[in-house]
């Protein structure tokens, strides 16, 4: 999908607030097509212990609008920021990343409370709801290395949990094909431009969002009601309460 076709619409705050309620309500009540169905997968058998402080997970799974939108609706998530990981700082710009030649992937930095949701459970939602992990450099209509499926662990323990979970899911044949997700350690994250933040919430009637991303929110609520919250944790509008 080209950069031009993904440009934001100039919504006002009032229109956005009204539209998101209507669009999310429609999506949560409407059955989704087979291509948009999430998959039930087992929880991780290996996970990190809960610590007292907020932790961070960096994940890539196609266009960051939908991945950010999913995790903004997850209980225990303090923030989810769209950005870029895998390349150099001076190339962490949307117009350049869109070339597919920077090494970056559109990614989301999820800051979460491990006392409410673990890293392993974050990965469970990532694999089953946020994207299709059997596709390496493609998600929906988007193709290229900038849309790759990748986990950017912030430490060795996260890498260990991610590797163990991928092996567990492959051994269980949880998907119809092997998981293609790559684990890429030691890659810094750079926040994306302001107009990409909270895009799903601010532009719920944008055709790309309606077709590709609102069904993910519906699937999150359907498959993980214990982790779903209606009010998203917004980058630009403060943190929603659980």
Number of helices: 7
- CATH domain fold name: Peptide Methionine Sulfoxide Reductase, Chain A
Strand order of the largest sheet: 7-6-1-3-2-8
**Pairing-aware structural class of the strands and helices?**
alpha+beta
Determine the oligomeric state from the structure: single chain
Query: How many beta-strand elements?
Result: 8
**Tally of discrete structural domains:** 1
Under the CATH scheme, which architecture would be assigned?
2-Layer Sandwich
- Strand portion: 5-15%
Name of the level-1 CATH class: Alpha Beta
- Mind telling me the CATH superfamily name? Peptide methionine sulphoxide reductase MsrA
Mean pLDDT: 87
User: Could you tell me how far the N terminus lies from the C terminus, measured between alpha carbons in angstroms?
Assistant: 35 Å
Largest sheet: 6 strands, mixed
Rg, nearest Å: 16 Å
Which shape, going by the Cα principal axes?
Answer: globular
Give the helix level as a range of percent.
25-40%
- The poorly predicted ranges are 1-36, 238-242
H-E string = HEHEHEHEEEHEEHH
């Amino acid at each position: 999908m080209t950069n031009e076709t993904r440009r934001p619409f100039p919504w006002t705050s009032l229109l956005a607030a009204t539209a998101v309620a209507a669009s999310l309500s429609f999506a949560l009540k409407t059955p989704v097509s087979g291509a948009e169905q999430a998959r039930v997968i087992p929880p991780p058998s290996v996970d990190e212990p809960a610590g007292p402080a907020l932790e961070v997970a960096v994940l890539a799974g196609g266009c960051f609008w939908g991945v950010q939108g999913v995790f903004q609706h997850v209980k225990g998530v303090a923030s989810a920021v769209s950005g870029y990981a895998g390349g150099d700082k001076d190339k962490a710009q949307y117009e350049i990343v869109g070339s597919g030649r920077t090494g970056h992937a559109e990614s989301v930095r999820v800051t979460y409370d491990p006392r409410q949701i673990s890293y392993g459970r974050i990965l469970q939602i990532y694999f089953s709801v946020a994207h299709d992990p059997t596709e390496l450099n493609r998600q929906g209509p988007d193709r290229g290395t900038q849309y790759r499926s990748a986990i950017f662990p912030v430490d060795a323990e996260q890498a260990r949990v991610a590797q163990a979970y991928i092996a567990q899911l492959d051994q269980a044949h949880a998907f119809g094909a092997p998981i293609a997700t790559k684990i890429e350690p030691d890659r810094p994250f750079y926040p994306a431009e302001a107009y990409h933040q909270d895009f799903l919430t601010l532009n719920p009637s944008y055709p790309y969002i309606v077709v590709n991303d609102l069904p993910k929110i519906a699937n999150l609520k359907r498959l993980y009601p214990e982790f779903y919250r209606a009010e998203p944790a917004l980058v630009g509008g403060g943190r929603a309460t659980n």
